[in-house]
Amino acid sequence: MLLSITANHTPATDLGYLLHKHPDRLQSFDLSFGQAHLFYPEVTEDRCTASLLLDVDPVGMVRGKGRKQSFLLDQYVNDRPYVASSFMSVAISQVLRSALNGRCNHRPELVETPLRLTSEINVLPVRGGEEFIRAVFEPLGYDVSTQTYPLDELFPEWGESPCFSVRLEGTKAVAELLNHLYVLIPVFDNRKHYFVGSDELEKLLARGAGWLADHPLKEQISRRYLKFKPSLYRSALARLVEEAQTDDLEAEEMDDALEEDLPEKTTSLNQQRHGSVLAALRASGARSVLDLGCGEGKLLRELMTDRQFEQIVGLDVSVRSLEIATKRLKLKQLPERQANRVKLLHGSLTYRDRRLEGFDAAALVEVIEHLDPPRLAALERMLFEFARPKTIVLTTPNREYNVMWESLPGGQVRHSDHRFEWTRAEFQNWAEQIADSFGYTVRFLSVGPEDKEVGAPTQMGIFERLEEG
Hints:
CATH class of the largest domain: Alpha Beta
Helix content: 25-40%
Distance between the termini: 57 Å
CATH topology of the largest domain: Rossmann fold
Order of helices and strands: EHEEEHHEHEEHHHHHHEHEHHEEHEHEE
Shape: elongated
Structural class: alpha/beta
Radius of gyration: 26 Å
Strand order of the largest sheet: 2-3-4-1-5-7-6
CATH architecture of the largest domain: 3-Layer(aba) Sandwich
Largest sheet: 7 strands, antiparallel
């Protein structure tokens, strides 16, 4: 099976930097199912082509597997060595890992540069025909052309083969193209050669970040990628829908972002909030910290300046916010040791996520008020029951203080996306119930200028996990 990527701009040899593979050398890589060879059949200033050829060992890849067979010799007589499938996705992830992840140490400015690219896949087995190929790739901005083949030239009455040569043309960053191919190639025939579990769900969401949530066939793509496993594709669809809703809200928030921040500008309340959260995290002695609902990375940036925090992870449901955070924190330009200290994760706060377990502390800064009550209940279990960090620092608006801002009409919340804002008594009642239910203690602090009647604009709860046993 062969995948070719051609750059059609000047200098086209930039493709070699982006793929981390020198155009003058043939390179071979051992894989669990055979070998991959990467070479450049043409290299000029105006046109450069890189080809990834897989040489699959059809016997070696199944030796000792005990796989379910559709007929007696299915493990030995099949099309797997000759068609683009999950083998190609694995080869992309291993041979072109840096390019797939959007890293280019020698020419970092190229990573996000859209290039005129042509990709050819020979051949792709497709359940659904040319119409399905176009329905998958055209919404992503590709010009699609295909070529079909007869099952047997000697017996034309047998009809057409389900295999196609596919040519895609579009202006894309190389990492964007590779992520599309990584996810979509196995979708066309739904015959992954390895076990599909929860880690595949995370791969789908990570590699589909920024495009899958808006794809008109996201449901069909998710089902096929996850081999129709109900628990997996339902979870994937729920998280994709949540991402799409968040993106819609962000478009509105670009116009009315000052609605939440304007009343706070005179008191620099956001800075005071972050300062109070950082002080609480430092006092806890935490070495590993989660910033849940990290947004565009404002708190993460401050955490990174303190050497006490050796492991820093930010999680957000919005891919766009994570992209902004990546740029703001300059993660791709950091030295390797510093970059390994910080990680951004795409995910939801309302689903159990084993990546969030085992941390010393977690911060949720102005997050819970954006959740409807059923989703808030899901967050409670995810955070206090499953993730269970030793310390949780949580802030939320004090509704009583809203009367202090003339710019905020009476009875309104501070932001259109706030589902609720609690009084001090309501927040403390909720926090104490949560602490009692999940084995924590909680204490409360005020953040910002405090009024005798209505308190401070922000209220903060610091939860400490009780010693178990």
